[in-house]
Amino acid sequence: MRMGVDYYPEHWERSMWEQDARLMRDTGVSLIRVAEFAWSRLEPEEGRYEFGWLDDAIDVFYKYGIQVVIGTPSCTPPNWLVERFPDVLPRDAMLNPRYPGIRGHRCYNSPSMRVFSARIVGKLASHYAHHPAVIGWQIDNEFSLNECHCESCNNRFREWLSEKYDTLEALNRDWGTVVWSGEYSSWEQITTPLGGAKFRNPSYLLDWKRFETDSVVEFQQLQVNILRKYCPDHFVTHNIWSYPMSLDYYKLCEVLDFASLDYYPSTSPDKAVSGGYGGALTLDLARGIKRQNFWIMETISGPPGCWFPMWRTPQPGFIRAFAWQCIARGADTLVHFRWRSAPYGAEQFWHGLIDHSNVPGRRFEEYRMLCEEVNRLSPVLAESEVLGEAAVLHSHDLYNAFEIQPQAEGMNYFDNLKLYHRALTKSGILTDVVNTTDDLDQYRLIIAPSLYLLDEKLADKLKNCAKNGATLILTNRTGVKNRSNVCWMHPLPAHLAEAAGVTVAEYDPVGHDVHTIRLQDGKTYSCSQWCDVLEPTGAETIAWYEDDFYAGKPAVTVHSYGKGQVYYTGTVAEESFYLELFGKAADHAGLTRFAGLPEGVQISIRRKEDANYLFLLNLTPKQQTVVLKGTYRSILQEMNVGPAVHMDPYAVEIIELDQEFGGKSIAATV
């Protein structure tokens, strides 16, 4: 576990390098990331490589015991490359090139881009393979889908489709191109989605998104192969950008040693509470990419701002608290962006730890304190991991399918995922967020939001989990389509209807209209977006609609299936409904649960063989109190705490638990 910063030696006078290295060492920094945007300095002209300046900078930092991660510079092709080889530039749907002046102006399928990227990465890898300061590589920077429509992408798209479907007959059948006379009689008729028309075949558009992901993966793999060849002892990672994202991060990170995340929690007072919950989801998603701990390659050091107005500055304690949130949810290394605010360029006002004044201030002193704490506790927390007991399923394919065909006003796949995850977090239920394709046998509670694309393989996996004793919670818009984005001709929820013990008689896309559901005990909750009118075929109804033409009809059901239970929620209710539903389901499943957490206070547990460490995080600007059932040892304060733990704004507490414990024996209602 270590602390680092993003540093750009090419931005500063050489005389500043040693001063910075010395201050970093004294502050507790042991790692820097460099060079991910430095292609024009590393290769100022085609074939003329100048690494001397980077050699000198790395040597300076090595002298002060600071290790180095090098970023491959393919995110920012230099002007000479764009000028001589214009195929490097991506083209929009109208075939207009995206000109330089911003980062990310490269086509992943461009032959020139691939050739010159391979050359610069090969030169860097062979040059730094044995430098004692260099420990790993970050490929490119914040990959995304460029949606390029150039000739290379069109040709490669046809090849990709031919490899997937083998014949045009199979493609026409799976896409249902008979609609609107869309059948193809030659591969050359197929293009990328040119022109920007709205009326596109949804199966075609989903494959287009998949192709784009594979293009990024291939471009990354080109660099991975070179780095593995020259630097077999170095790690290789990539810094993903937050969520939601069309790019399939599970595919992207499959060959990497670990995932890295760029995480910028909101400093807005309007999000003083909600931002922490959204951040928790982002961190749990990052951990779920490879089902292991990860790195934070960039995180907040001051108010961001550049191509948008500046955010509010982080309040006292904010930087420290959200850094510990990252660690609490599985980050093993924190790299803050950036060491010093840039005096020029597009990111002048994306503030670093040190402002343009070059005088360390309040934020820097908070960071120094954070470094001391992390470095002190690193031996204790090393090799610990976060293991959730509940799982929320997530899929980039599902996100893309809903983006291609929005189902109702205000209905958003990722926003609903946030809703369910936030309710789990507030309920103190230890949760993983994992890919729908992952193994789920370890989980006793599984929330499967809107499995819109559902095949028999996924359905059988979920049914087996329930048969073996898990509680499965399904939601509306489950089982609508197959993996080709074609509607099933079965009553919903299709392949999960038997397990759910219910079918959807009809549905109403209510959008922003607010309806009401009533539970058995008489409690009522508002709902919106969607209303499935349910017809039980063995399931017990636990909530009914209160209004509209389906008043009195089932809205939520539960069905005993094998040794487990399957819930079906036909609508999207207010948060308090899920707090009750998930709490009861977790208790029924025998999960660890920390009830009574104040609004904005989060818990997480990192486990290792001989100990468990409970993190209490007050991610709000007000004082909070958490009541425990007993007294425990704080490894942060090195003293006993509890039963009442009084937490100042943005306070953090880390408590050592016994190896065997149950949440109900620790947490108490405030």
From TrEMBL:
Zn(2+) binds at C107, C148, C150, C153. Gene3D superfamilies: 3.40.50.880, Glycosidases (3.20.20.80), Golgi alpha-mannosidase II (2.60.40.1180). The active site is at E142 (proton donor), E298 (nucleophile). Its EC number is 3.2.1.23. InterPro entries: Beta_galactosidase_C, Beta_galactosidase_Trimer, Class_I_gatase-like, GH, Glyco_hydro_42, Glyco_hydro_42_N, Glyco_hydro_b. Substrate binds at R103, N141, W307. GO terms for cellular component: beta-galactosidase complex. Residues 6-376 form the Glycoside hydrolase family 42 N-terminal domain. One of its GO terms (molecular function) is metal ion binding. It catalyses: Hydrolysis of terminal non-reducing beta-D-galactose residues in beta-D-galactosides. GO terms for biological process: galactose metabolic process. Belongs to the glycosyl hydrolase 42 family. This is Beta-galactosidase. The lineage of its organism: Bacteria, Bacillati, Bacillota, Bacilli, Bacillales.
